[in-house]
Amino acid sequence: MPEISSDGPGPLGPLQLPDGRQLVLRVMPMPADANGNGDIFGGWIMAQVDLAGAVLPARIAKGRIATVAVNQFVFKQPVSIGDLLSFYAKVERVGRTSVTVNVEVYAERNPANLYVVKVTEANLTYVAIDREGKPRPIPAAAA
Ligand SMILES: CC(C)(COP(=O)(O)OP(=O)(O)OC[C@H]1O[C@@H](n2cnc3c(N)ncnc32)[C@H](O)[C@@H]1OP(=O)(O)O)[C@@H](O)C(=O)NCCC(=O)NCCS
Q1: What's the mean pLDDT in 25-52?
Q2: What is the pLDDT of residue 36?
Q3: What angle do CA 80, 83, 86 make, to 5 degrees?
Q4: How far is the CA of 15 from the centre of ligand 1 (A)?
Q5: Atom of ligand 1 nearest to the CA of 135
Q6: CA atoms within a 13 Å half-sphere pointing along the CA-CB vector of 124
Q7: For 84-93, what is the mean pLDDT?
Q8: What mean pLDDT comes out for the span 79-98?
Q9: What residues line ligand 1, using a CB cutoff of 6 Å?
Q10: How many Å apart are CA 46 and CA 25, to the nearest integer?
Q11: Whose alpha carbon is nearest atom 44 of ligand 1?
Q12: pLDDT in the model for residue 6
């Protein structure tokens, strides 16, 4: 994806980037999400990535989905209280019953001299499930 910087698609960037990546979530961590040093807990970020990652698969599956796997998760930079986090997602694969997405997380920080850094990247797979919680086929139009 193109680099996001303060003079690029940064602060209130587009909902869809040229490479098909979409803005699916923006959130600012609160003090309750941080440890004593002011760094945000990895588990909090993982929960947000799971929520963000589910947005496109839920649209494609047109119904209930469940996270079946977190295939990769990299914390590239720490996240701090006051960072504005933007989650960009891209569909990597649509299978028979599953959708795999790549999620990149960017932190917008230091409003006095704004800059944006990539903090996290992950790959997650979601499965379309029926009322009994069993895998169901992805609707044909999406596959
Ligand atoms: C998701 C769930 C319904 C899948 O049931 P299952 O019987 O294991 O399903 P299958 O083995 O038929 O696999 C279903 C799809 O998931 C994919 N899949 C399964 N395990 C995977 C893994 N480790 N990594 C990537 N994809 C995986 C399969 O490739 C298949 O995709 P495809 O049909 O597109 O090829 C079941 O595992 C479940 O309920 N898990 C708990 C989900 C949950 O509660 N998540 C929240 C976190 S606790």
Answers
A1: 95
A2: 86
A3: 125
A4: 29
A5: 3
A6: 28
A7: 96
A8: 96
A9: 66-69, 71, 95-98, 125, 127, 129, 133, 135
A10: 13
A11: 66
A12: 42
Asked if 22 contacts 89 with a C-beta cutoff of 8 angstroms, the reply is: yes
pLDDT of residue 3: 47
Of the candidates 45, 44, 67, the one whose C-alpha atom is nearest the C-alpha of residue 55 is 67
Please check the confidence at residue 33 and state whether its pLDDT lies above 80: yes
d(CA 17, CA 1): 8
Give, using CA atoms, the residue closest to atom 12 of ligand 1. Answer: 135
Long-range contacts (CB closer than 8 Å, 24 or more residues apart) made by 9-13: 10/108, 10/114, 10/116, 11/108, 11/114, 11/116, 13/86
Alpha-carbon span 82 to 71, nearest angstrom: 29
Instruction: Compute the average pLDDT of residues 19-45.
Output: 93
Average pLDDT on 133-142 reads 89
pTM: 0.90
**Residue 37 phi/psi, 5° resolution?**
-90, -5
